[in-house]
Amino acid sequence: MLKINSIEKTFNPGTINEKKALDGVSLHLKPGDFVTIIGGNGAGKSTLMNAITGVWPVDNGSITLDGINVTGLPEYKRAKYIGRVFQDPMMGTAPDMQIIENLALAYRRGKTRTLKWGITKREKVLFHEQLKILGLGLEDRMTSKVGLLSGGQRQALTLLMASLQKPKLLLLDEHTAALDPTTAAKVLEISEEIIDKDNLTAMMITHNMHDAIAHGNRLIMMNNGQIIYDVEGEEKKKLTKEDLMKKFAEIAGSEAESDKMLLS
């Protein structure tokens, strides 16, 4: 579903602030893979997602999504293939619009615009059923302004909007980091349910090692713009936090102690 071959990205090349954010990263995801990504600040996790979505053009390498070479495509052309949820619950929605209007915008993404009036009855029924899946009672508040929702409700809605068109790839960019532990656990539970229900291919960045181990079928660790550890299946299920820290210490050496705080 996703083939990333030897991509590189350097910011501010040739200056004192030069930073190699991605250093020959290669990654292949099968349809239905749910990959969690961990690593310290500056490891290249968000830059990898920005490269996939087209926020940053890569300097070298290629990105292929479901057989389509998207390497040279601008961000807006890739948007119809990719759903993304950010860390900030305020992003990804229009706060002054109703819940149903936000869902309608997401539902029409990548489709040809017409002059047909409003939201159809069929769409209202669909949105009602989709909101029910969240288990937050939002199906009874479809005319409420999104800006009135709590952070957790809004993030759950953003997750639903990002997956409404069943994207080829769903990217979760630390989407629970700004939430309290109870709400974060609920949003993660909803995330897994949506991914499983629609058999989506997904990538999730997290700083929480427990979440990285508990969710998904594959775990990737990044450091200095490279993938330094890649584990999946039964081997991943047996992992512990201690295993991850030991592995990180083995590979990253002296940086392990400073990143221990970030990864915990």
Portion in beta strands:
15-25%
Strand tally is 10
Number of helices: 10
Order of helices and strands: EEEHEEHEHHHEHEHEEHHH
Q: What strand line-up does the widest sheet have?
A: 6-7-8-3-9-10
Walk me through what this model shows.
- Strands 6-7-8-3-9-10 form a six-stranded mixed beta sheet, with helices on both faces.
- By secondary structure, it is α/β, with parallel strands linked by helices.
- A hairpin with a 2-residue loop joins strand 9 and strand 10.
Give the SSE map.
Blueprint: E1 2-11, E2 19-29, E3 34-38, H1 45-53, E4 60-65, E5 68-69, H2 75-78, E6 82-85, H3 99-107, H4 121-134, H5 151-163, E7 169-173, H6 181-198, E8 202-205, H7 209-214, E9 218-223, E10 226-232, H8 233-237, H9 241-252, H10 256-263
Parallel strand pairs: 3-8, 3-9, 6-7, 7-8
Antiparallel strand pairs: 1-2, 1-4, 4-5, 9-10
Helix pairs in contact: 3-5, 5-6, 9-10
Summarize the structure.
The protein is of the alpha/beta class. Helices cover 37% and strands 23% of the residues.
Any key phrases for this structure?
264 residues; 4-stranded antiparallel beta sheet; 10 helices
